[in-house]
Amino acid sequence: MVDPSLLILSSYTKYLFILAHSMALLVEKTTTGREYKVKDMSQADFGRLEIELAEVEMPGLMSCRTEFGPSQPFKGAKITGSLHMTIQTAVLIETLTALGAEVRWCSCNIFSTQDHAAAAIARDSAAVFAWKGETLQEYWWCTERALDWGPGGGPDLIVDDGGDATLLIHEGVKAEEEYEKTGKVPDPSSTDNVEFQLVLTIIRDGLKTDPKKYTRMKERLVGVSEETTTGVKRLYQMQANGTLLFPAINVNDSVTKSKFDNLYGCRHSLPDGLMRATDVMIAGKVSVVCGYGDVGKGCAAALKQAGSRVIVTEIDPICALQALMEGLQVLPLEDVVSEADIFVTTTGNKDIIMVDHMRKMKNNAIVCNIGHFDNEIDMQGLETFPGVKRITIKPQTDRWVFPETNTGVIVLAEGRLMNLGCATGHPSFVMSCSFTNQVIAQLELWKEKSTGKYEKKVYVLPKHLDEKVAALHLGKLGAKLTKLSKDQADYISVPIEGPYKPPHYRY
Amino acid sequence: MVDPSLLILSSYTKYLFILAHSMALLVEKTTTGREYKVKDMSQADFGRLEIELAEVEMPGLMSCRTEFGPSQPFKGAKITGSLHMTIQTAVLIETLTALGAEVRWCSCNIFSTQDHAAAAIARDSAAVFAWKGETLQEYWWCTERALDWGPGGGPDLIVDDGGDATLLIHEGVKAEEEYEKTGKVPDPSSTDNVEFQLVLTIIRDGLKTDPKKYTRMKERLVGVSEETTTGVKRLYQMQANGTLLFPAINVNDSVTKSKFDNLYGCRHSLPDGLMRATDVMIAGKVSVVCGYGDVGKGCAAALKQAGSRVIVTEIDPICALQALMEGLQVLPLEDVVSEADIFVTTTGNKDIIMVDHMRKMKNNAIVCNIGHFDNEIDMQGLETFPGVKRITIKPQTDRWVFPETNTGVIVLAEGRLMNLGCATGHPSFVMSCSFTNQVIAQLELWKEKSTGKYEKKVYVLPKHLDEKVAALHLGKLGAKLTKLSKDQADYISVPIEGPYKPPHYRY
Amino acid sequence: MVDPSLLILSSYTKYLFILAHSMALLVEKTTTGREYKVKDMSQADFGRLEIELAEVEMPGLMSCRTEFGPSQPFKGAKITGSLHMTIQTAVLIETLTALGAEVRWCSCNIFSTQDHAAAAIARDSAAVFAWKGETLQEYWWCTERALDWGPGGGPDLIVDDGGDATLLIHEGVKAEEEYEKTGKVPDPSSTDNVEFQLVLTIIRDGLKTDPKKYTRMKERLVGVSEETTTGVKRLYQMQANGTLLFPAINVNDSVTKSKFDNLYGCRHSLPDGLMRATDVMIAGKVSVVCGYGDVGKGCAAALKQAGSRVIVTEIDPICALQALMEGLQVLPLEDVVSEADIFVTTTGNKDIIMVDHMRKMKNNAIVCNIGHFDNEIDMQGLETFPGVKRITIKPQTDRWVFPETNTGVIVLAEGRLMNLGCATGHPSFVMSCSFTNQVIAQLELWKEKSTGKYEKKVYVLPKHLDEKVAALHLGKLGAKLTKLSKDQADYISVPIEGPYKPPHYRY
Amino acid sequence: MVDPSLLILSSYTKYLFILAHSMALLVEKTTTGREYKVKDMSQADFGRLEIELAEVEMPGLMSCRTEFGPSQPFKGAKITGSLHMTIQTAVLIETLTALGAEVRWCSCNIFSTQDHAAAAIARDSAAVFAWKGETLQEYWWCTERALDWGPGGGPDLIVDDGGDATLLIHEGVKAEEEYEKTGKVPDPSSTDNVEFQLVLTIIRDGLKTDPKKYTRMKERLVGVSEETTTGVKRLYQMQANGTLLFPAINVNDSVTKSKFDNLYGCRHSLPDGLMRATDVMIAGKVSVVCGYGDVGKGCAAALKQAGSRVIVTEIDPICALQALMEGLQVLPLEDVVSEADIFVTTTGNKDIIMVDHMRKMKNNAIVCNIGHFDNEIDMQGLETFPGVKRITIKPQTDRWVFPETNTGVIVLAEGRLMNLGCATGHPSFVMSCSFTNQVIAQLELWKEKSTGKYEKKVYVLPKHLDEKVAALHLGKLGAKLTKLSKDQADYISVPIEGPYKPPHYRY
Fold first, then answer.
1. Are D424 and D433 in contact (CB under 8 A)?
2. Nearest CA to CA, how far is A144 from chain C (Å)?
3. Which positions ≥6 away from A260 have C-beta within 8 Å?
4. Measured between alpha carbons, how far is C465 from C477 in angstroms, rounded to an integer?
5. b (16+ CB within 10 A) / e for D480-500
6. B78, D54, D150, D274: which is deepest, by most CB within 10 A?
7. What is the pLDDT of residues A37-60, one digit of tens each?
8. Could you say which EC number(s) this protein's record lists (chains A, B, C, D) (predicted)?
9. Is A261 marked active-site?
10. Left if phi > 0, otherwise alpha if psi is -120 to 50, otherwise beta: which for B194?
11. How far is CA C303 from the centre of its chain?
C-alpha cells in the first residue's frame, strides 16, 4: 500500500478552489486523428526548432535511433509516459517512436510542461496531454488520458517520473478488486490528503463505466521504468509489501542518471532559475543549501563558483564532512536563517523551511526548492499566515510580505521545482544521459517480455549498459578513451570491454 | 573630430530597410504632462515591482538618497541620460530625481531597453524615450528627444554610455559653426557609415528650424559623466584633438566600475544570456573567449566554473600569461575554430569572428559578443554570404545555415551585446557600484559648476570617492572593515580614513 | 592462491643487488625490554612533538580514546600492524594501546616510514620494525618481526595495508600444510617474481625451526582489518577461492575512507609531493592524470585549482564523462605525451607510462605515481634502456636522460607513491577518518571474537559506524548537524539517529 | 632621510644575544681567487643540479642569454645584488654574468638563502656572502662585503630587494658628509631600533679606515633596480625628500612582477610553506587572510581551492568588495580570532596579529606571515609574554604555549616570510618573470649610463618592455598569440606590435 503522505501536498487554499471548480476538459484530435490536449498548437513550429537544436545536444538518444531504428524493436509496443513534457522529453518520445513505439504522454508536474514542446509532439509524433499550469484536477485527468489506449488495450510499457502513473494503476487495481469482492467503491472523503482524494474520485468514477479497466492494464503491462528517487522509493516499498504488480527498472540509480542529472543538471539549472526569476547577483551573497546529496552538491558548487558564500545544512554526518572538505560551512538552518540571502532546499524530505524561518529572514531573501515536492517549503504555513500579503512579481516569482515587519521573502515556483518552474529544467545534454537509460530500460523490458527474466521486482540496469550510456556521450565532447591491453585487463581482473567497476563502486 | 568608425555598424540589409522606411514617431504625454515614448505603458506596475526589488540590491544608490536627498543638491539641474533603459537604470534615474534633478532619458542600445522599466519611469519619474528593438532611425530620434528640453533650455548635465549623446552635441555644434560660417549643411551621403548618415540627417534637418540649438546646449552644459570604455576612448581622442566642448568625468575607470561591472557583471550575465538563449549545457563544452581583459576574465571564469574547457585568444602577452596562470589555453582562433562549441567576443575591437571562421565551425556552435559593438562578429559577412539561410529560433537567437555543409551556427542578439539582448544585463548589485559612481560624478560636476575646478578635459574620480562607492556596498553583504591605528597609518604613510592606495595600484 | 603479479615489482637492477647483499639485521631492545629496529632513536623527541601536533588534528582517534579508553576493550589483545609507519600511524598505534592492546608494527612500504615517528613509538609505546629506505629483504624481515610474538603466541588481530602481513600468514600456512603432508619446502626459484622469492625464502627458513608457526598464528587469529584497494582485492580473491583463513573487515570501502582519504588526501598530498620534490610551478603547466577514480579525481582537482590545464586518461566511459563535466579533456596518453609537463598515474593498474612514452616527453617532464605499485610506471624499462643516465637530484628525485636526445624526464620516488616518498603522505585529519575506521573494525572483531558473528569472509563496516566516524570529525571543523524530527524521519523511512542512506548510495 | 621604522624589527631576545655576541667572520676564496662566505661548499654540486632544472623553468632569463649574450652588454659592469640567494636568484646571477657582468651578492633576508644555491654560485660564478640563518650582525656584514669591490672601485649597478644595499650607501654617504663637515661619527645609541644600530656601527667603523668609501660608491653608481614594494616605498620617499643619490628603476610595479610574483607566486608558495612546516590538512579549516592585495589574493585563492573556508580582513573597502565577490567573508580579526585555524598576514603593515590575539586562538592555530617584515606578527609581544613557553618542533616551526590555558599557537619562520623560511619561496617560472624585469632594468640603466636619460628619480619600465617580459614566457607554456591586422590596430589606436594598453590599465 502506498503511503499517501508521499503524494504531492499542494497549498491549502488552492485545494479548496480546485475542488469547487468544475472542469470542461475536452480531448482534441489532429488531422490524422491522434488525440491531444495542449495549450497552443500554434507553438508547434517553435517547438520543432528547439527540438532540432536539442537533438544535436542529445547524442545518446540519437545514437539509439541510429543503432536500433532500422530493426524497429518497439514495433507493436504501446508506451505511456508520465514525465515533464519538455523539449528534452520530446526528443525522448521521438526516439521511442523512431524505434517503432506508439506513445501517449502526460507531464508529471503541473508547472513543468513547455507548451511549445507539447505542441510539436502532439502535432507530429504522439498523443500529448499536458500544459504549463495545470490544476491538480487537470493533472490527474491528463494522467488518466495518457493511460487510456481505448478498446485495443494498453499500455504495454510505462515511462514514469515520480510514480504517479504507476500509482494510479495500483490504486485502480486495488479498488477494482475490492469492488468485485464487496461492491464497495473508494471514498474520497476517507483521506485528508487533497490530491489523493482526486485519485480516488477518478477511480470511483471509472468503476461505474468499466470495473476492469486497471486490472486489464496490469495484466498486459510488461513493466515500468522509473526516473526519480521518489518514484523509486515507492517501488521499493511496494516490492517490500509484495504489492508490486509488474516488473520495474530503477533508472534513477544508474550512475549515468543520479550522478549526472542530479549533480551536473542542478549545477546548471539552479543558477539559471535564480537568474531568470530574480536577476539577483549571486556573487557576494550568503546562500544556504539544505541537504548535500547529489542535488545539493550540484547546487552548492554552482553557488560557490558564482561567488556566493555557501552554508550547508545536513542530517547525515558523512555528507556534512564532504561539504566541509569543500570549504563549506555546515550549520543548522536556525543558526543562519537571519543572515542568508538565498535558501535552496534539496533534501527530498518535508518541512525543511517553515513559515517561522521565513519570518526571520532578511527582506527579499529568496526561498526556493529544487529537491522534489513543494512541501520542502512550508507553503501552507506561508499562505495561511495571518495578514501575509502575496505580491506576484511575475509568474512563479512571488514576494510574500509579513504584516509584522513589512518585510518579505521571495518564493520561487510556489515552492515547486524552481528549475522547471522558473527556467527550462536541466539542459539537453545531461537529460540525454538520463533518457538514454530510459530507452535502454524500455528496450530491455520489451525484449524480455516473454522470457520471465524480470519478475515483479525492482531492478537496476546492469553496469555494462550504464557504461554504454556514458560511452555514447563522449564523442560529442571530443573525448577519446584509453583501451586496456589483455594483460592489463587480466591484471585488474576485468574484461577488456568492461564493465570496469564492482557494483558497490561509488564514482 | 570623432572617428566615425567607432560608430555602431549595423547589418547591411537592415540599413537599407531602415533608410527606406518612413517613420511616424509621436511623443506622448502623461496626465501630468511629461513627455515619453515607450512600448507599453501597461507594464508600469510590473516595472515598479521590479524596481522595488532592485532597490534592495542597490545599496550605493539608496545610500545616496539617504545622504543627499534632504539637501536636494540637484535642485534646478536638468539631466539627460543616454544609457540602457533597464530596471537598474530606473533606480539610478530615481536617485537623480530624489536628489532634486529633472531628467530625460533614452537608451544607448537598440535592444537593451526593458520595456517595463521604461514604462514605470515614464509614468512616475522622468521623460523616457526608449523601447526594446528600436530601429537605428528610431534610436537617434530618441536620443534627440532626450536632449531636447524645449524653450527653457538644457540639459545641464549628461549621463552618457558609449558617448552617443555627447557625439550628437559635438557633431551638432560643428555643423552649426560650419553653417554659420559657410552656410553649408551636413551631407549624409558624404559618409559610407550608415549610422553616421542618420546622425548627419538629424543635424541637417535641425539646422533648418534652429541653427543654434547645439551651440546653446554646449554653452549651458556643465559636463558629462561617461560610463564605458568606448565612450571614454572618444572623450580622450577629443581631449587630445582639443575639440572637447565641456568637462567630462570618466566613470569607466573608477576601480569600482571597471573591475566590478566588467568583471563580475559579465561573470554573471554571460552564462545567463547563454542559458536563456540556448539552454545549452555549458559543462563539457569547449569555449573560446576572444580577449582576456576584464570582460574576458569574467567570461572565462564563468565558463570554466560551469565545467567548460576554455581557450583564450589574445594579442597582449601580459593578458595571455594571466590566462595561462589560470590554467586556460591560449591559441589563435584559427587553431581551434573547428573544435569549439561556444565562441564569445570580448575584445572591444572589430573583425574578431569572421564569416570564414563561422563556416568552419561545428554544427550549432554558438557565436556571441559581450564586448561592445556588433562588429566584433562579422554580421555583414554572414548576412551577405551567398545562399546562407537564417532561421530565427526565437527573438535574438538565430541559426544561420551555410548552403555548402547544411550545418549552421547559432548567433545571439544579432551580434550585439548578448547579455543585454538575450538576458537582462548585469545584476542590480554590480550596477549599483557603477551607477553610484555616476551619481557622485554628477554631484561633483554640479557642485563645481561655477568654480572652474573642471576644465574641458577628461577626469577620473579621486580615489577617496572610489573607495566610498565600495564602502557603501559592504554592509549589504555583511562585511566589516578593519580600522587602521594612527601608528599603522603613519607606518604605511596613508591617512587613517584613506585613500589607501597609490594612483597606479592595480587591484 | 594469491596472484603473485599483485606483489610489488621493484626495479630490476635493485633486485639483483638485494639478492647479492648480505644483511646483518639485529633486533634491539628498549630499557623496558621491548623489541625494536628503527633508524635513529635520537629522533624520538622530535617524533613525540609531531605526534602531539597530530593528535589535535585526529579527533576521531582521540574520541575513541575518550570513549573506550576507560573500559580497556583491547585488554589482552595482541595486535600486529603492517602499515606506513608515519606520525599519523603513531597516533593510531597509541590509540590501540590506550584501549589496552599490545602492539607490534612494521611499515607496508620501503620508503614510507617517518623515522622520527618510528623512534617515538619504539621508545614509548610499541615494538616497531621500520625505517625509511628498507631493501626488500629488510622489508620482509620487518614484517616477520612484527608477526613474531614469541612463545606466548600471537597476534590476535592484524591491521593490514596492502595485505602483506596477511599474505605471509597465508603462504606460511600453505607451506606448513604441504610440508606436513609431503615434507616438501617452498622453492624460491619456482617463481620469477623477485619479491615473492623473498617471501618463500623466509617461510622456507622458518620451517626448519618451527614447522607450525603460521598454523598456530592462523588458529589464534581473530581477524584482519585491511586498509587499501589492493589488499581488499586480494582478500576478495581468497574469499572467492575459499582460501581465506580468518575474518576480514574491508576498511577501504567505508565511505569515510575511500571517499575521503583517496580523494581529499591526494588532493592535498599530490601538490605537496610535487612541490617538495621539484619546486616546479604548477600554474600554466599541462598535466596528465592517468585514471579518474577517487585518487585521480583528487589529483586532477588539485592540479586544476593550482592553475594547471589537466588532461585525463580513462578506460571507463563513466569516469571519463565525469572528467568532461569538470572541464577536463579526456584523451589517450599517446595523443598528449609530447605536450604535457606533469604526468601522474592513479590507476591501480600496471604498464601505464612506458619507457617509450617517456622518450617522447618534453625535457624535464615530471613523471610520478600516486596510484599504488611502482609498476604503473615502467621503471624496469627505464632502468634498462640502453645508454640511459640517471642523475639523482636529491633522494627520490631522479632525472633520467636519454642518450638519443640528451633530454630527460624527472621521476619521483622511483615510481613508488610520490606523496609518501617525496612528502609526508596524507595529512593527519583525513587519516584520522581512515584510522578511526580501523580502530572500530578492530574493536568489532575483538568484541565478536567468540560469537561467531564473523565467518572467514570479507565484511564492510555497517553504515551506522561509517556515519559515526564522520560524526567524530565534525566538531573539530566547527560543524553542527541538523536533527530530523520523528515526523521527517518517518516520511523518508529512516531512523532519527541514522543510518540515513541505502547501502548502494554513492555519496 | 629613511624612516628607521621601515627597518626589519627582529625579536627582542635575539637582539640582546646578537649584540653580546662576538663574531669571527672571515672571507674565504675559491681556487680562482674569488671571495665568498657560504655555509657548505660541498653542496655546490647539488646546487648546480637544481640550477640546471630551474633554467628550464626560467625562459625569460634564458632568452636574455640567447638574445644578449653574444654582444656582452654588461662588459665592464660590476653589479652588487642584495636579494634572497636562492636557486632562482642563481639563474639571475648567471644571466648577468653570461651578459658580461662581474657580480657580488648577498641575501636580503636572514633565513632565505638556499645554501646549495649559494655554494654553486660561489664556486662557479660570483662572489657570494650568504647562508640560511644569519644573525642580524652577520646579515649586515654580508651586505657590506657584497658592496665592497676593493681598490678598483664599484659597484656600478645594484640589484636590490627591500632596499638594504641602497640604504647602507645612503646612510654611509650621509655619515661621511657629516664627518667631513663636523668630524662627528654616527652614534648607534642614538636609535632604539636595534637593526639600525648595527647599520650605524658598520658605518662608524668604516669611517675610521676610509672616510670616502660610500661617497666614491655613490659617484660611480649608475643606478639601482629595486624588487619589492617596501624597497620601492623607500625610494619614493627619498625621491620626495630630494635625497635619492642615483637613478632607480622600480621593477616591483611592472605588471609582470607585481601581478605575477605577488599573486601567483604566493598562491603556490603559501600552501607549500604550510604543508612543509606543519603537514596540516587545509581542507575543512577556517583561514584568516589579513590583507587582500595581490599577495592576499594569491593566498586566499590557494586556501579556498584547497578546501578551506577563508575570511579576509581589510582596511580598504575596494579590496574588501573584491573579496566578497569571490565568496569570501570580510570581518575584523577580533571577530574571528577564536574560531579560525590558520592565520596569514599579507598586509605590508605592522602590528596585525598581536599577542593578545594569539592568546585567544584555538590550540595549535597556525600563525604566519607572507607579507614582508616579521613585525606583521607581534613576535616581541609573544617572546616577552610572561610565562610563555617556546617549543621548537623543527627549525622555523615553533609552538608557543601560554601559561594560563596551556594551549599554544604554532608560529612559522619566527614571523618572517614563511614561504622562504619554511619552503623554497616562489617557483622558478614566476621568478623568471620578476628577474627578467631585473635584467632588462639593469641593461637599460647600463646602456643609458652616459646619456642622462635617467635622473636621480624612480622610474618604471616602459610598457613595451613589460609586455616583452610576458612574451618571453609564453612559448614554454605552449601559448600562441593572435596578431592584430593593421586595420584592427588602427581601429583601437595601438601599434600592431604593442604596447596594447594605456598606462593606467589595471590588468
1. no
2. 27
3. A430, A433, A434, C321, C325
4. 20
5. bbbebeeebbebeebeeebbb
6. D274
7. 999 999 999 999 999 999 999 999
8. 3.13.2.1
9. yes
10. alpha
11. 23
**Residue of B307, B324, B326 lying closest to C326 (CB–CB):** B307
Residues of chain A with pLDDT under 70: 1-24
**Quick check: C108 and C82 in contact, CB under 8 A?**
yes
For chain D, say whether C394 makes contact (Cβ under 8 Å). yes
What span, in angstroms and rounded, lies between the C-alpha atoms of D365 and D274? Answer: 12
- The answer to whether D394 contacts chain C (CB < 8 Å) is yes
Burial level of B75, CB count in 10 A (0-12/13-18/19+)?
A: exposed
Q: How many separate helices (H) and strands (E) can be counted in chain C?
A: 21, 17
Which residues lie below 8 Å from residue D316, measured CB to CB, with a gap of 6+?
A: B467, B498, B500, B501, D292
Q: How far apart are CA C341 and CA C287, in angstroms?
A: 6
Beta-carbon separation of D307 and A327 below 8 A: yes
Residues 6+ apart with CB under 8 A from D334: D357
| Cβ-Cβ contacts under 8 Å, D268 against chain C | 275, 281-283, 306
The answer to whether B409 and B383 have CB atoms below 8 angstroms apart is no
pLDDT tens digits along B133-176: 999 999 999 999 999 999 999 999 999 999 999 999 999 999 99
Where is A401: in which H helix or E strand?
A: strand A397-401
Is the minimum CB–CB distance between B349 and chain D shorter than 8 Å?
Answer: yes
Cell of C48: 613525540
Rounded Cα gap, residues A118 and A120, in angstroms: 6
Q: Report d(CA D239, CA A113) in Å as an integer.
A: 71
CA distances from A156 to A121, A339, A436, D18, D212 (A): 20, 53, 19, 92, 105
Q: Kindly report the nearest CA distance between residue A301 and chain B, in angstroms.
A: 9
- Name the 3-class secondary structure at A338: coil
Report yes or no: D387 and D405 within 8 Å, Cβ to Cβ. no
> What is the complex's ipTM, to 2 decimals?
0.93
Q: Render the burial of A465-483: b for 16+ CB within 10 Å, e for the rest.
A: bbbbbbbbbbebbbbbbbe
The three grid cell numbers given for residue C103, joined into one nine-digit string: 602492539
Dihedrals phi, psi of D90, to nearest 5 degrees = -60, -40
Give the separation between CA D282 and CA D342, rounded to whole angstroms: 9
Alpha helices in C58-163 (DSSP H): 59-68, 87-98, 115-124, 136-147
Instruction: Take residue D217 and report the three cell numbers written for it.
Output: 660608491
Predicted local confidence at residue A24, as pLDDT:
63
The pLDDT tens digits of the residues spanning B254-285 come to 999 999 999 999 999 999 999 999 999 999 99
Write down the catalytic residue from B88, B109, B225, B262: B262
| Residue of chain D whose alpha carbon sits nearest to that of A286 | D327
- Sequence-distant (6+) residues with CB within 8 A of B192 are none
SS3 assignment for C40-58: CHHHHHHHHHHHHHHHHHC
Contact at 8 Å (CB) between D494 and D500?
yes
Q: What is the spatial order of strands in the sheet that B102-106 belongs to?
A: B28-29, B35-37, B127-129, B102-106, B78-82, B157-160, B223-226, B248-250, B458-460
pLDDT, residue B24, reads: 63
Kindly report the CA angle at B72 between B67 and B78, in degrees rounded to 5?
125
Residues A121 and A85: beta-carbon distance below 8 Å: yes
Res B214 pLDDT > 90 = yes
Return the SS3 of D316. coil
Residue C417 dihedral angles phi and psi, to the nearest 5°: -55, 110
Q: Which helix (H) or strand (E) holds B382?
A: helix B379-383
Where does B411-460 have alpha helices with state H? 418-421, 428-447
Closest CA to D335 of D317, D314, D308: D314
Question: Poorest-confidence range of A34-38, C10-14, C409-413?
Answer: C10-14
